[in-house]
Amino acid sequence: MAAEAASALGLSMAVLAEKPDDAACATAAEVLLGSPLVEEHLRALAARVGVVTFDHEQVDLAVLGALDADGVVIRPGLRTLEMAVDKSRMRAVLADAGIPVPAHLIVPAGPRGAASPAADEIAQFAAAHGWPLVLKAARGGYDGKGVWPVGDMAEAASVVAPLTGTLLVEEMVALDAELAVMVARRPSGETVTWPATETAQVGGVCREVLVPGRLSPEMLDRARAMGERVAEIVDAVGVLAVELFWSGGVLMVNEIAARPHNSGHWTIEGAVTSQFENHLRAVLDLPLGPATPQHAQVASVNVFGGPAGQDPRALLGRGLAVPGAHVHLYGKEARPGRKLGHVTVCGDDAADVRERAWGAALALGTPRPEGLSLPRGVA
Ligand code: ADP
Question: Which residue in 125, 179, 244, 319 has a CA-CA distance of 20 to 30 Å to 226?
Fold first, then answer.
């Protein structure tokens, strides 16, 4: 999607992809095959481009540091990436800066048994905050992978036992809503912020994004202010997604992603400038476009592979038959439960756009999510 935005601006995007069938290869102007963890491969990419930027966090900071030292322009910069790749560092920096965050503990993980120091510390934390807790691997997680809700010490011990590295232990927050706010920031600090969205996760995976969802004007203001403060603290350049929890009147930051994000896909049709275009503008230090929404209501619903691995491309006609459905399929191989695309619908009525977006996502083979109540027309 970033490559589509690049093409419109006459920019040429080169992508470092692990496999020729990675989704970005279909749209990027140039493809280099290789691993973002291998210095030689990253140097080959850096030699082709003016600015190196990212669409995931599975990077090696030492390798990037070596490139940075040699003058390669990396945006966002190393300080931001250190937080983006490590949830414990991200959490510590935000807590130190006075940003409200869930109660937490940072401990080295195993491999250890129930009698390990980590287990003792987890038990003490649980005594203070109560079960259940949420355990998170500091590095390498995404889409709920590396996040484990645990109900008691035995469960916690079995999660911790095979882990290495650092573990983030947190209270289970009683969520009234989850929000995300996207901020685009230039190296000078110039910032534009899209209106906050309400997101719904099932099993740690984002299923829908509603703009503005149930968010009141006051909450939208608070979320915007929080997002902009966080962008300054982490010295973001490019797009920053700030994921927020709303609980008992308190707004707290769960995590950040220093790149375009699923909760900003709605901006392609729903805002004057998309997150992808503004990410490119920001990392290239070009003037940012307005983040103003173009519609009163926007719903964006993710498309997943069905239980039999149905390919949504084979169902495209059914999805497109839903009035106003903007269908984006990423060209990935269809597998059960794999995120394969999204559908956005814009309009004036919250219930109507949500119903049409879900109608199209289901028509494309997306399984019905457990634990999320669907709009009446498709339920
Ligand atoms: P990921 O990096 O996989 O996106 P997150 O930290 O965002 O991991 O967690 C995924 C989802 O799990 C969140 O969107 C939220 O629904 C739930 N979750 C994570 N941490 C907590 C918590 N402390 N309390 C309640 N729910 C949580």
Answer: 125
